[in-house]
# Entry
Amino acid sequence: MPELAILTGSPAFTHPLHVGRPNIANQERFLERTGQILDRNWLTNNGPLVQEFEQRIAAILAVKHCICVCNATIGLEIAIRAAGLKGEVIVPSYTFVATAHALQWQEITPVFADIDPATHTLDPTRIERHITPRTTAILGTHVWGRPCPVESLVEIAQRRGLKLMFDAAPAFGCSHRGRMIGGFGLAEVFSFHATKFLNSFEGGAITTNDDELAAKIRLMTNFGFSGYDNVIYIGTNGKMTEVSAAMGLTNLEGIEDLVAVNRRNYEAYRACLTGIPGVALMLYDIAERGNYQYVVVEVNEAAAGLTRDELVKVLHAENVLARKYFWPGCHRMEPYRSLYPYAGMFLPETERVAARVIVLPTGQTITVEIVSTICGIIRAAFAQSAAVRAALSQRT
Ligand code: T4K
# Structure
């Protein structure tokens, strides 16, 4: 059993292991593309690499339109505005805060609905209680890249006359019932942030099969310009740069290798964590395509002898910088905490899951040996939970 830094003071890893360390598929190819950008002297504004990136994404996802943007937060704001969402929109609280902010930023009220604890995505049975005459839409998040219950959400949206969109920020390369995420609802928005499975430094993409909506989104992404000197819409600057597209295209070419690495690490975690009471690995559906970018575990204090927060402290002492996504839930962050102080009453599963989840490091920089050491730390921490607790209580 490994000695724990929390007890002995010497960490298992000399360098920090981050969740979200960027994947870079092929540095040489990226630099080659960057050189070509400089030679062309065409740096942004719908350049050739952005166009190529959009075409490749649309083909992979089998969608009619892909509009690349500077990041997914702006992408969500643009898609929300272009689709005409207003009033109140039903969203999960268990998501990255950008989902809620993209609404509130436009003075649309995010109404937080609870999640299914088994999937961490919106629970369709808990949506209708939140629908009011001001509700215009449902905005689901494919949390961890695992799809929302799309069919049930479509049924509710159609029956109640609501629009349906998806925050697909973590879900590039994932499928639902054999169809790639990207073509569900009115529109879906992906993130290509540095920490995401497919990264373009910063970046994102809005995908849709709706011609009219796509045209509106394109205009809005570029200030509303429909041609020289002709602005026909309110717009913003949501454009992706050429250097971002170069990174995105290069990583797209290496996507199968990136999935393979994540899958290998996920399987290693699965094997090593099996039999440790008090820790449950969130499983991916192997019948679907997935990117396996998040290794998500839930800590059960009763069986583990430690809380999630105590385990995080143990891991951080070892230089394993595990994250508590999406603690504490959007409804406990400002401005929502002040605006809706009682929202938590309707979100028991969100609160329970948010208090139990830990995300562990994976990706290109993590090896199977590292996974094995991390799991050994977890096993040792639970086995010595009383001593760990005592050591932690002396620290605070
Ligand atoms: N909707 C959902 C459901 C999302 O998950 C997100 C983003 C969005 C919308 C909005 O997408 P964008 O507008 O960002 O395109 C991170 C990311 O910043 C964020 O993109 C992501 N979700 C979220 C889940 O995680 P932080 O604040 O936790 O990340 P940060 O900056 O602490 O980075 C994590 C770790 O990665 C660091 O400890 C160090 C490492 N790192 C990070 C960067 C940027 C590196 O090693 N190199 C790097 O370049 O939010």
Remarks:
- The domain at 27-253 is CATH 3.40.640.10 (Aspartate Aminotransferase; domain 2).
